[in-house]
Amino acid sequence: MALEQVRSYQVQQPVQPERKKDPQPKPTSQPAKKPWFTRGEKVLYSIGIVMIAVMAVIVVSFSSSVDSLNRDVQQLNTQVQEVQSQNNSLQAEVQELSNPNRILTIAEENGLNIRHAEVRQANNTP
């Protein structure tokens, strides 16, 4: 029992202040923060995103050029149809103007006398 009193007495005695030393850092028990992605994954994902963006730009550019070509083709088709309709109307006018009766009336108006002759139309085809 005396031993216990001595020990308690020693604990209760004021301790002289020592020089303060920087306490050694205690090892932290917190686990290290793990990143979501590693550096290699970040590089791969970045390259993938850049490739997808480039492909999107190429697709949009190609689509735009195809649309402009389709517009040009449609314009050319309308021009071809207009020219065909003009050709058809001119062909009908040629047929009307090459009527043998009309040619005879114009020839008689200009002083040509045809006696007992048969008028034939010359064809351009062989």
From TrEMBL:
Main location: membrane
Keywords: Cell cycle, Cell division, Cell membrane, Coiled coil, Membrane, Transmembrane, Transmembrane helix
InterPro entries according to UniProt: Cell_div_FtsL, FtsL/DivIC
Pfam family name, one: DivIC
Compartments in which it is found: Cell membrane
Coiled coil: 66-93
Membrane topology: Single-pass type II membrane protein
Entry keyword Transmembrane helix: yes
Domain of life of the source: Bacteria
Transmembrane stretches, start-end: 43-62
Chain segments carrying region Disordered: 1-35
Family: Belongs to the FtsL family.
Role this protein plays: Essential cell division protein.
UniProt protein name: Cell division protein FtsL
Organism encoding this protein: Alkalibacillus silvisoli
